[in-house]
Amino acid sequence: MDSTTSTTSTADTTGARHTGAVPDTAIRVAIVDDQHLVRSGFAMLIDSQPDLRVVSEAANGEEAVRALATTRADVVLMDVRMPGMDGIEATRRILAGSNGAVGAADAGPRIVVLTTFDLDEYALSAIHAGASGFLLKDAPPEELLEAIRTVHRGDAVIAPSTTRRLLDHVAPLLRRPSPAQDAQTDAVARLTPREREVFELIAQGLSNPEIAVQLFLSEATVKTHVGHILAKLEARDRVQAVVLAYATGVVRP
Predict the structure, then answer these.
(1) Which of 91, 191, 205, 253 is the most buried (most CB within 10 A)?
(2) β-sheet with 75-79: strand ranges across
(3) Residue 230 and residue 220: Cα distance in Å, rounded?
(4) What is the Cβ-side half-sphere exposure of residue 33, based on CA atoms within 13 angstroms?
């Protein structure tokens, strides 16, 4: 398949609706939800935007894993509760099938977990599985569209206030002593003073432009610092970095 322009296929299981070429400038979106009306509604909304294009739809996790093994997507909207394989396991498998290394060309899609349940255990499980954020299904349309663009840019955490509320609640679990936590603490200690400043602001949910204003830096410089931080912490993205900040006590509820 061409890496920049492809066509989607129509299938009963995926419900894919596009047969034309996907512009190489468009953000490629996959929708995974067991409710056909939900998938259709999301697809109509997303396809109404000139910079977004739905390239795949799936009704459960198994279909999503199969579809995304052959169809490239930049962002996946993943339902949590589905029959068969749920969204948490599907997220884990999709990302395990790619190279999760920071900055890798085949690092896999960014996954935004969708749920109608504002429940801590689902959101935390999604983050641990590698999701780049989560969003409630009843979020306003403009919030959903901005979430897709934001997670694709990788310069902010989806719904930072919700993420912070979740992590404040589960922080004691994250800080339980373990060999992994010792390694994370050592990694944080290796950050330079400036990187530590940027890391703390990332953990507060600030975007790159907001960090640039606060530290009187250019956005390009902030982006460079963020890249170095993620590499040193071996964090796939900003959400993973925020979780690590809570786990190591850099941020306390």
Answers:
(1) 91
(2) 52-58, 27-32, 75-79, 110-115, 133-136
(3) 16
(4) 20
